[in-house]
Amino acid sequence: MKDYLRAVTEAESVEALWALHTVEMAKYGFDRLIYGFTQFRSATSLGDTKDMIILTNHSQEYVKGFIEDGLYFHAPMVRWALENNGVCSWRWMDRQLREGGLSETERRIVEFNRAMGVTAGYSVSFRSVSARAKGAIALTAAVGISQEEVDRIWERHGGDLIIMNNVAHLKIISLPYSTARRPLTARQKEALEWVGEGKTTQDIAQIMGLTPATVEKHLRLARTVLDTDTTAQAVLKATFQNQIFVIET
């Protein structure tokens, strides 16, 4: 685990970290993962999926049904993760199903998961200091591994698995990421950074050696890339995504 933790903490991109993490979790029998993190949680929503970090190595068919078609929002283990911090065996979901503790929608999602070979695993819900932020990961056991076997794996290795997933989560949210089709340019980032410092358009133009009109153009394009209505929202989102005020590698 020491080698894994060193590699994760030294990872310079979300993609590199995720590749490491999926390989490591597969060694414990969890060959399919879904990680999600949002900064825009409210009482009735997790925010727009395009503003979330969503990482997975599930099949495209499963991703379409569970993520793109919105089934995740009504999934029993997602409900558990939103209401709790820590770890939970999927045995909890089976017990809820037997005891009538799931809604009709949740039961349909359980059936969808079973049809896709998603039947046994563990969920980890990460603690956050912000009411708007929430992160969790679902560790799906390989096809053919029962929940009883998964629980035995967790009895032996649960402590290490909790540490590895928590470290991976903390590293992911510290790395730059973008959900936009194209990244911010260096000029757009710099202009947003100066806005974040409280500078006016005229100030930024002088600092960057540009005309005010060109600065406004960079800010307008940044708003478009980040899909925001105002420059203040663009600064906030770019900061959440670690796209500005970062050291370029």
Q: Can I get a quick summary?
A:
Helix content is 52%, strand content 12%. With 249 residues, the chain is of the alpha+beta class. The radius of gyration is 21 Å and the shape is elongated.
What does this protein look like?
The chain is an alpha+beta fold. The chain has two domains: 2-172, 2-Layer Sandwich (Beta-Lactamase), CATH 3.30.450; 186-240, Orthogonal Bundle (Arc Repressor Mutant, subunit A). Helix content is 52%, strand content 12%. The protein is built from eleven helices and five strands, in the order ααββααβααββααααα. It has a five-stranded antiparallel β-sheet, sandwiched between helices. Helix 1 runs parallel beside helix 7 and helix 8 packs across helix 11. The radius of gyration is 21 Å and the shape is elongated. It starts with a helix and ends in a 9-residue tail after the last helix.
